[in-house]
Design brief:
Elements (H helix, E strand, L loop, with lengths): L7 E3 L18 E3 L5 E2 L4 H11 L1 E4 L5 H17 L1 H4 L14 E3 L19 H7 L6 E11 L30 E7 L9 E4 L9 H8 L6 E3 L6 E5 L4 E4 L7 E10 L3 E3 L7 E3 L13 H4 L4 H6 L5 H8 L4 H5 L7
Parallel strand pairs: 3-4
Antiparallel strand pairs: 1-2, 4-10, 5-6, 6-12, 7-10, 7-12, 8-9, 8-11, 13-14
Helix pairs in contact: 1-4
Length: 329
């Protein structure tokens, strides 16, 4: 991002929202310039952009058939499994914060298995995390900000982080990586995933703002359905509200880094980076994947939390699953 105010729309803090319940998102330095997007096969250029800024945009990662299939899946499961989406009798307040979420669709829908290592985005995922043998599956979900949802309350935040990220050398591979695929077009009127480039190297958004100076940007990422955004979970990000009327559908997938890596910290000898910790304490992997006949698939789905261990030890008892958070059936 160019070190000047060119292409930046400055929003005074006092004018950002007339509703005190709505978050004043970030510092109001909204970029009017979209970053470059990369073809899925442009691994070197896409990796270099990610290494510099902590995120990258890949274009046309999902084709028309895949988009139709995934949107049809969302339509069908919202009708057939409303509780899984928060649309049942105990309806969740889905028009705020993250919107509708189907948290663990892989548990009951093996037709989604081919998407867990999608051909368009996975090669870059593997490059960022240090090789195919180091990529571990963490989470897979669908989300929707419904039409006419109104303004939200999500402020800038980062996801899971490891403290040594601020000092270690080299920084990459990162600890966790998220892929967001747009399942609907995202233009200026839609809620957009918004990032602060380079903020993954800072402990707070205020630190990033103070240190980056004129390079500080809040960049809403637009794009047609099929666009994929890969980001380091340490990157500060949010959902930037659109006009409050247009909706958005997304597929989110999280990856962890497996294996031990040599690294160093200032003033110390070289040390070994352990595998990334588990991302959540509730996410479950179905038996068909966790105990897959192919050792490579088993390795990919081997990043188990305590809930998964207990479910496996029970023989994948459905009653044990049902007693766990988001273990609905």
């Amino acid at each position: 991002m160019a070190p000047s105010n060119t292409g930046v729309r400055l929003i005074p803090q006092e004018n950002r929202s007339g509703d005190p319940a709505i978050a004043a998102q970030g510092f109001g330095r909204i970029s009017e310039i979209q970053p470059p997007s990369f073809a899925p096969g442009a691994l070197d250029a896409a990796y270099d952009w990610f290494a510099r800024y902590g995120y990258v945009v890949l274009r046309a990662c999902l084709d028309k058939r895949e988009l139709a299939e995934l949107n049809a899946f969302m339509d069908r499961t919202q009708r057939e499994r409303p509780d899984a989406w928060g649309l049942g009798e105990r309806r969740r307040p889905h028009h705020r914060n993250q919107g509708l979420i189907f948290s663990q669709p892989l548990l009951d829908h093996p037709e989604l298995d081919p998407y867990t290592r999608h051909a368009a985005s996975f090669p870059l995922v593997a490059r960022i995390l240090g090789g195919v043998e180091r990529v571990r599956f963490s989470e897979f979900n669908f989300r929707e900000t419904p039409e006419h949802a109104g303004a939200g309350t999500m402020n800038f935040h980062h996801d899971a982080v490891v403290a040594d990220r601020l000092l270690r050398d080299p920084y990459l591979p990162c600890d966790w990586l998220c892929a967001i695929h747009y399942l609907t077009d995202v233009d200026a009127d839609c809620p957009a995933f918004c990032v602060v480039p380079g903020s993954n190297r800072f402990a707070t958004l205020a630190d990033a703002f103070a240190t980056l100076g004129d390079d500080y940007r809040e960049v809403p990422l637009r794009g047609p359905a099929g666009t994929c955004i890969l980001y380091d979970t340490a990157l500060f990000h949010t959902r930037l509200d659109g006009d409050g009327r247009r909706g958005r559908r997304t597929w989110h997938q999280y990856y962890a880094r497996g294996g031990w890596l040599p690294s160093s910290l200032p003033g110390t000898k070289r040390y070994v980076r352990a595998p990334s910790p588990v991302l959540t304490d509730w996410n479950l992997f179905p038996e068909r994947l966790a105990l897959h006949a192919d050792p490579a698939v088993r390795l990919y789905f081997s990043h188990w939390n305590t809930a998964q261990c207990e479910w496996v030890a029970s023989g994948f008892d459905p009653a044990v699953r049902a007693a766990m958070p988001r273990g609905y059936q």
